[in-house]
Amino acid sequence: MPRRLVCALALLALLCACSPIEPWVKPYEREHLADPIMAFDRVPIATAFMDHVYEVRMAARGATGAVGGGCGCN
Amino acid sequence: MQLTSTRLKLLAVTILGLGALASAPGRAGVLPEDEADVEWNKYSGGGQVIEGKTWLVRKKIGDKIDVEYTHLIDVVSGASIDVQLAASPYIEQRTQDSASVQYLHGKSTYSVSFSHSFEPDYRSNTAVFSISQDMFGDLTTLSMSYRRTWNDVYRQECAMHGKNGACDEKIHDPSFGEKTEDQRSYGVGLTQILTRNSLLSANFEVITDEGWIANPYRDVAYLDQTVGRGFSLEPETDPNTRTSNALGLDYKYYLPYRAAVDVQYRYFQDTWGIRAHTGQLGYTHPWRNWTFDGTFRYYTQTHADFYSNAFLFATQQNFMSRNRELSTYTSWSAGLGVSYQFTIPHFRWITKSTANLRFNHLVLNYKDFTDALLVDPKNGIGIDNAPLYSVSINVIQAFVSASF
């Protein structure tokens, strides 16, 4: 019985993979998302410098998608 | 003697080049507009002043290729608590040049960048390759990056002292020679449109270091009753490998009255035993030609396995550090920013210009790093029971940006 269930689920997953995914937010519904205030990094040159300050003062690093630059290393 | 935190430089300088990858998740498949920026910044706190200038130019070539060049200069002066404890104040300049190329092909964006950083006792070269791909009706953007950094580390010593005792000429210490460090980073990111008003970005990054990671100038302290202040110093010894993992999440929501909130969280761990959590709240509010930003950030970390504020005796263990960035501490920061958008009448080819001013106040409260400058054996204050160290830092940034 468990094997049949697994096969059925696998078949269902395969069928889902064959059908195109319909965007649940249509392109014409993305007006707000396209607003510059929704950019993850609206002012990269400023964010880069602050991320650099944090990097040199703290042990944690990475996963910010941040740019380096500036000093503050000492 | 100059004291610089080389290991921290490795962290900082080698995060170069991800700018191309970081070009606004959710907007892959679109090259950024042509732009020129000039920035001035000033960092002051903990006895140090760092003043920097950055120039950035970005230009499209056709509609598929984008090139970017950045040049920056930093001048560091003053004396942090480490310098005051074991060395003399100094002035040092760092320059950095970075160039990147992005190529847009259908739903994919390829990016290559290279960067070179130069200091009297530190050279760094970084190369980055990244790719991002829009999929599922542009609801999802997947990105991957690989970064490689090569660093050369030297130790400087004074070759000639001036009349006032300051060092007039420095040379590389031949007994130290040249040390190298190799760093590799592997990153993957996913940006997802959740609703017509919200976005979520997730990034995971593994960074490995191999080579000289320790600081050639920084010392550790150990208890020593044979000297008046009750402790002595010896060079720190860090492991020559380190691997870290970090997972970052960023959620952005568009409010009904045209404003945006941003919630970020990052978890970090490494093979040195450090665990860290970072949380940040942000708010962006446009009003006419103005845009206002506010952020609050909280950070906490545990100390490295081989960190100690004061070791019991010299060479107590094979790896030893009193680097305060490897100690246990919490930190918070608050920031405010304002941008003003304007047009220049006689320069029609400049489509948009902004003047920007940002201020950040950062506080670090150390939990197991004492202020060794307050040690006073006559009053029973040793390095192990001196007041805990804390520092407040102010950062000001002013920059002008023009799009054309």
Which fold name is given in CATH as the topology of chain B?
Porin
Name the biggest interface.
A-B, 49 and 103 residues
Mind telling me which CATH architecture of chain B this is? Beta Barrel
Structural class of chain A: mainly alpha
Gross morphology of chain B is globular
Main sheet of chain A?
none
Tell me the CATH superfamily of chain B: membrane protein fhac: a member of the omp85/tpsb transporter family
- CATH classification class of chain B: Mainly Beta
Can you count the beta strands of chain B?
20
Give the proportion of residues in helices of chain B.
under 10%
Low-confidence stretches of chain A: 66-74
Instruction: Report strand % of chain A.
Output: under 5%
Helix segment tally of chain A? 3
Domains of chain B, number = 1
Radius of gyration of chain A: 23 Å
Distance between the termini of chain A: 65 Å
Main sheet of chain B?
A: 16 strands, antiparallel, barrel
Question: How many strand segments of chain A?
Answer: 0
Mean pLDDT of chain A: 76
Radius of gyration of chain B, in Å, reads: 23 Å
How many domains in all of chain A? 1
